[in-house]
Amino acid sequence: MTLREMLEELGRLAAPAPIEYVRPGARVLDPDDWEVDINEVPYQKCDKALDTPLRDGDTVFIRILSLGGG
Predict the structure, then answer these.
(1) Would you say 65 and 35 are in contact if contact means Cβ atoms under 8 Å apart?
(2) Using CB atoms within 10 A of its CB, is residue 33 exposed (0-12), middle (13-18) or buried (19+)?
(3) Cis peptide before 18, with omega less than 30 degrees from 0?
(4) pTM of this prediction?
(5) Residue 4, pLDDT score
(6) Is 66 a residue whose pLDDT tops 80?
(7) Rounded to whole angstroms, how far apart are CA atoms 25 and 20?
(8) Which residues does 36 contact at the CB level (< 8 Å), separation at least 6?
(9) How crowded is residue 42: how many other Cβ atoms within 10 Å of its Cβ?
(10) How far is CA 50 from its chain centroid?
(11) pLDDT per residue as tens digits for the range 12-28
């Protein structure tokens, strides 16, 4: 499974409503919405970015970037 596939599946399983981590046809995640690391390395630094294969034991960390405001 690739990072893209994992994020798409995770988004479908989100409750109470699906989450769109990866926009259809996107080559990268929207940097204003999410930061994602694979084994403590930003996914953008992996050779295949969103298409990086995940292996048993890999850790994927997803950070939601909050918008400032009052």
Answers:
(1) yes
(2) middle
(3) no
(4) 0.86
(5) 95
(6) no
(7) 12
(8) 3, 7, 21, 29, 42, 43, 60, 61, 62, 63
(9) 12
(10) 8
(11) 998 889 988 998 888 89
In angstroms, the CA 41 to CA 52 distance is: 12
Assign 3-class secondary structure to 6-56. Answer: HHHHHHHHCCCCCCCCCCCCCCCCCCCCEEEEECCEEHHHCCCHHHCECCC
Q: Integer distance in angstroms from the first to the last C-alpha of the chain?
A: 40
Token pair listed for 55: 């292996």
pLDDT of residue 64: 86
- Model confidence over 36-58: pLDDT tens digits? 999 999 999 999 999 999 999 99
Tokens in use for 1? 């499974």
